[in-house]
């Protein structure tokens, strides 16, 4: 499969420091795979190995059907890399067109396709109007857009991105997320996304992996991770003033209700059987004359998953769902 990534016990050390410690994972063709972790966790080192820019000390990886050690040139020809913004590698004395044409020729893009491809990407990134200006005059967000265009110039099957929306305004970031979704779903491209923007990852990633101290702490779909980390769901019920508080005290006797708390006119509780518990609680409150305004579930986010995993896996207990 030209868009798959298979990693088996990949390891890399720098001196006595273990940057990546025997990680194994699979990225499926056509998915957006989020690779999350704190600074120094091993994300960038992993990406550099998978792009055949540095060699692993142990383990192996197959990227788009090619071995990252034995077939490094083939790997580099089919992947696109957007590095962290500080390492964009753009030539500031050159124009956007000159930058993209230069990198396109490095990838042996045919001359009869080169100019149309460059215009297509500059239009996509809303930079065509600045095509004749030197990159040195560009804002940080414009440089990031040009870096994205450069990573896409040879139409790679697999795209590695490190903080792709850093420096982009909200409208540009939204457009980019839509572009990534379209890239994967309609064109069968694979995106390996390193990011600290957890809400963004929650929106666009099909699956995520969290790495900490060089080790994988967890991998899976966010919905499955939420279920595995929190077996009980939290609900908040808002009431109009004047209800009978003695009824609330009796709700604790209902089976499968835990951590029942009343703060002013707000009731909060946990349950692993919401389909049974919620109707019973509503019925008892209404029968006692109480008036319910809202009943809402407290939704766990990717940030909640991330903080819980990082907080409890300093020694990296493994979980896959």
Task: Sum up the structure in keywords.
disordered C terminus, Alpha-Beta Plaits, 4-stranded antiparallel beta sheet, 15 strands, elongated, alpha/beta, Rossmann fold, 321 residues
**Structurally, how many domains make up the residues?**
2
Class inferred from helices and paired strands: alpha/beta
CATH architecture of the largest domain: 3-Layer(aba) Sandwich
The largest beta-sheet arranges its strands as: 6-7-8-3-9-10-15
By oligomeric state, this entry counts as single chain
Radius of gyration: 25 Å
Mean pLDDT: 87
Which of globular, elongated, flat, extended, rod-shaped describes the shape? elongated
Q: Into which percentage range does the β-strand content fall?
A: 25-35%
**CATH C-level category of the largest domain:** Alpha Beta
Approximately how much helix is present in the residues? Answer: 25-40%
**Counted beta strands:** 15
Biggest sheet layout: 7 strands, mixed
Distance between the termini: 23 Å
